[in-house]
């Protein structure tokens, strides 16, 4: 039954409901999220956990005039449903459909585009200060999770906000989870705050007693702030200059709504700590919020079930097995992840080598410099990080690792297009932004077997190396069980042809081989963007009329650019066609279809070559 939800076209309709109807609305909204995600796949646990908070925010605040900024955006499906996008939910994360994250061009209620974590407080503060400067009376609300609060950027924003007099409300959505289980001192601190809830209960009980004696009640009110310091020390957030309220139950609308209404009328920066449960209302997700963080399609009545046939081995799994095998051989190896243990394939490594495993939380800058410090002391750090998240540690990559020429291996998962997560998570830029750094090397394995071999090659070097590989499975070439390395910086001719040579970087080798058959072209598995195999490149340029470079990365500054630069340096004349990702953001959709749309499948490569050279 969705009779209430059927009447909601916008938050204006939510605000017109009697308050006693809101729990029923929340129940219908939760079921709507579950029904849709089970059909499309997407983020589930986090969205089930923010239903009541979403209802309360749109009920109390005058959105979209009041600005809500959702951190990361994993938890915004209820928000999308209440803001006029319910009918489009079946298109979620599909080509030309709804984004899985807030987007400014999708709705006026999406005030800030997100996808990476820990940006909400900075953005909301910027909006609050802009409103103050323009003389506008509106609120800015940042909703941030306890996992995202571990990032330095969040604390930089808190540090600034605490000295500004503006209408800013920070809501800490504390569900004791990010994607992986929580880590670090901040999580312990929040747990202590929650365990101190006895103070709030004791205070309310005392009020009821003292109200019978008005003089004593007034005395108690004047004494309250001093008494609070004796029972619960001033919170970290109060030290930052915020008025801290909480923790309160984030699923109890009878607590949430009056609290938000009170905070709405207070001046200066406010901080509300709400406690929620990932997967709330769906028992299977409550029991295993990690598994239900981002499931594919499933039957809600049954839950997630193993596939009938074993899935192909993924690049992530290849990395995880390699990491364990290399660690068993070399006790210097340490593994580092910024809060992506499951996503990066490090669960088994954590079990087998707990003292050599470091989850630093959502803190990519720290992860990179931590690795640098370890490398200075003779350890061999391997940083498992998504390509899109290494962007956040770029200064540290240059200044702390490469400048000091430290032997750190960066295992870059999710390189290239990532499908349903879209532009915010695409690993399109790492070739361009790593190959330009002195001392760095860049490897692009073509398949699962080569991924393991190039990880071993990278580990054997005495300088920083990135090994980039895509999400999911590749050509299905099973890796060996040894730790054999390949020749450093050397390419391999996989097919001999005439006139045209296709230089393939990474997993696009396989569509390039198909195109090579159609074109009778030479096909080279380049393996390395830096160093390029310039000896082989010179041979190819001298024996072929034209060269085609193929890469699943941005064209500008990418592998094709490296080839053109090398040819120019060697003063070799050869017509070059560069194929890769265009100078535009590529949105969400099926990865294979997205690649085909960019002309990076076999047919697209053939078509591009024949258009360039019709003869």
Description:
- This protein has 3 domains: about 60-75 and about 85-195 and about 230-275, Rossmann fold (3-Layer(aba) Sandwich), CATH 3.40.50; about 315-470, Thiamin diphosphate (ThDP)-binding fold, Pyr/PP domains (Rossmann fold, 3-Layer(aba) Sandwich), CATH 3.40.50; about 490-610, 3-Layer(aba) Sandwich (Rossmann fold).
- Helices cover about 40% and strands about 15% of the residues.
- The protein is built from 25 helices and 17 strands.
- The longest helix is centred in the N-terminal third of the chain and has 19 residues, at about 20-40.
- The N and C termini lie far apart (about 65 Å).
- The model is unreliable at about 195-205 and about 220-235 (pLDDT under 50).
- It comes from Limnohabitans radicicola.
- It is an enzyme of class 2 (transferase).
- Keywords: Isoprene biosynthesis, Magnesium, Metal-binding, Thiamine biosynthesis, Thiamine pyrophosphate, Transferase.
Write the layout of secondary structure elements.
Layout lengths: L10 H5 L6 H19 L4 H4 L2 H10 L6 E4 L6 H9 L34 H15 L5 E6 L6 H10 L6 E7 L10 H11 L2 H13 L3 H18 L4 H4 L3 E7 L3 H12 L5 E6 L7 H5 L27 H15 L3 E5 L9 H6 L4 E3 L4 H13 L3 E7 H4 L3 H9 L6 E5 L16 H6 L5 E3 L4 H13 L4 E4 L23 E4 L4 E5 L4 H11 L2 E4 L2 E3 L3 H10 L2 E9 L4 H11 L5 E7 L9 H7 L4 H11 L3
Parallel strand pairs: 1-2, 2-3, 3-5, 4-5, 6-7, 6-8, 8-9, 9-11, 10-11, 13-14, 13-16, 16-17
Antiparallel strand pairs: 10-15, 12-14
